[in-house]
Specification:
Distance between the termini of chain A: 28 Å
Strand content of chain B: under 5%
Oligomer: heterodimer
Order of helices and strands of chain A: HHHEHEHEEHEHHEH
Structural class of chain B: mainly alpha
Number of helices of chain B: 7
Helix content of chain B: 55-70%
Structural class of chain A: alpha+beta
Number of strands of chain A: 6
Largest sheet of chain A: 6 strands, mixed
Radius of gyration of chain B: 17 Å
Number of helices of chain A: 9
Number of strands of chain B: 0
Shape of chain A: elongated
Order of helices and strands of chain B: HHHHHHH
Chain lengths: 321, 170
């Protein structure tokens, strides 16, 4: 018998349910509740499993985003090694007219009594290359007139970068005068307190000197001599360290950046252009997608593996039936 | 959270109508699958009981009522096989399992009826879905939970095996 005849005979065969079964099914079907009216705004058919497959990764991504983007509790505090930061908002910076006195950043007054590491960053925009060159020279003159010096000067096409050292006591005057050399685009001040560390070093030196006096009062044995030499070396090292700290604290560092309009680029990380919102949206969408993938892919693999195992079990079950 | 739109509300077909129309198909499928018409009767009744409970979740856009009822019937049959396996294990020591004479459908020649017993339930299942109930490869594959290619391969293997069994009998 050919396969064609075989399928024809199989198709011709029929299986009719016995009347008792038909009656039984009619009784079962009679229990069907009356159909309810279809809701006007019916949602598309999504099974709870499918909803879960989407909801779990999304929820995990949202949770992870919330956790990871929560503001840190380790914000700078004004205690030991205190740090002060100040910067002018972008809008204010953009609106600041040429020659205007510096705002928030210069408002951070260096302490006259405490040792501090004072770093200021000033970004100015110049009208053209000539103005930039002049401003660069004026900046060096200003610093020199305040007993400071230029640690490094780098002038490239349309941009200049000067690292200026100014006595800390004159830094506010320097910032005010430097701010008049162009339109302020950005400024920031970073102050680190060094006094607490210096005090601790002073105490250590005092303790070591007491120890040294006690050692010198003892009988000079080779061991005592060695100890005296070691303590003396330690004291000298700490004194050099203190001197270096005092020197660092004496001068404030002013990082001056000048650029012509053509080359003026928005400071890194502050580019709030017209497409900024779009960039932020894309970035967060990307982050969300990465999290969704990170959570979704293992879940999908698990789901596929579970399906495969179920089918294998069914095959085994049917083959043994 | 209820997202699923109850298809029964679309007004296409009531459960009673679907049951009346597809009872023979479901019963035939179960008879071929199990090779036991008495068991098929019980399983058909259980299938429709379960189908009535699940009827609000039936979506005609995703497949016909016949396909959906066959899927429910398959789940019921698999549950039956599982419970049978457990029962056989329990009774294995006391007495050998009673062999029920297979009867698949009316109108089959005795040679073909005998040849069908050579096939495994999985092969008979694909045969009844593709040939007897005349489902297309995709629909049958969905009922079986396999790919259409796999379904076609399984059908060809079953037909070849059946042909060989008939040749041997001749």
């Amino acid at each position: 018998m050919s396969q064609r005849d075989l399928t024809a005979e199989l198709r011709a065969a029929h299986t009719t349910a016995p009347p008792e079964l038909r009656e039984r099914i009619r009784l079962i079907a009679a229990a069907e509740p009356a159909p309810r009216r279809r809701p006007r705004l019916a949602l598309p058919a999504i099974g709870w499993r499918r909803a879960l497959v989407v909801a779990v990764p999304v929820a995990a991504a949202v949770a992870a985003t919330v956790v990871l983007t929560r503001p840190s509790h380790n914000a700078p505090t004004a205690s030991r090694g205190e740090i002060f930061r100040a910067s002018v908002p972008q809008a204010k910076r953009a609106a600041a007219p040429s020659g205007a006195a510096t705002g928030g950043a210069a408002g951070v007054v260096p302490s006259q009594k405490r040792l501090q590491d004072y770093e200021a960053t000033l970004t100015l925009r110049e009208a053209d290359q000539r103005a930039l060159s002049q401003a660069s020279q004026h900046a060096q003159q200003i610093v020199a007139s305040l007993s400071g010096y230029a640690q490094s000067v780098s002038v490239a096409n349309g941009a200049a970068h000067l690292v200026l050292k100014v006595p800390r006591t004159h830094v506010q005057a320097a910032l005010a005068r430097l701010g008049k050399l162009g339109a302020i685009v950005g400024e920031a001040v970073h102050v680190t307190d060094l006094q607490a560390g210096a005090n601790a070093t002073d105490r250590t030196i005092a303790r070591l000197q007491r120890q040294l006096r006690a050692l010198r009062a003892q009988t000079r044995t080779p061991r005592v001599e060695r100890q005296i030499a070691a303590v003396t070396a330690h004291v000298q090292r700490l004194q050099r360290q203190q001197a270096a700290t005092a020197r660092t604290a004496h001068y404030a560092t002013v990082d001056l950046r000048l650029a012509t309009k053509k080359h003026a680029a928005a400071p890194v990380g502050h580019g709030h252009g017209p497409l900024h919102g779009l960039v932020v949206a894309f970035r967060w969408t990307g982050i969300g997608l990465v999290y969704a993938l990170a959570f979704g892919v293992p879940l999908a693999l698990l789901w596929l593996a579970a399906g495969w195992v179920r089918r294998r079990r069914e095959d085994v079950l049917i083959s043994r039936a | 959270m209820t997202f699923r739109r109850p298809a029964a509300y679309t007004g296409a077909m009531t459960f009673a109508q679907a049951a009346e129309r597809h009872l023979d198909d479901v019963y035939g499928y179960l008879a071929w699958f199990t090779g036991d018409r008495f068991a098929a009767e019980d399983l058909a009744a259980e299938t429709f009981e379960r189908a009535l409970r699940l009827w609000p979740r039936f979506d005609p856009k995703r497949g016909s009522a016949r396909t959906w009822l066959c899927q429910v019937a398959r789940t019921v049959a698999l549950d039956h096989f599982r419970s049978e396996r457990r029962r056989v294990r329990r009774e294995q020591l006391s007495a050998p399992a009673e062999r029920v004479e297979a009867a698949f459908a009316e109108g089959l020649s005795s040679d073909l009826e005998r040849a069908l017993t050579v096939l495994t339930p999985a092969e008979r299942e694909v045969l009844v879905l593709r040939v007897v109930l005349d489902l297309d490869a995709g629909t049958a594959a969905r009922v079986l939970g396999i790919s259409p290619t796999n379904c076609t391969t399984r059908l060809n293997r079953a037909l070849r095996k059946l042909e060989e069994a008939l040749d041997v009998a001749a």
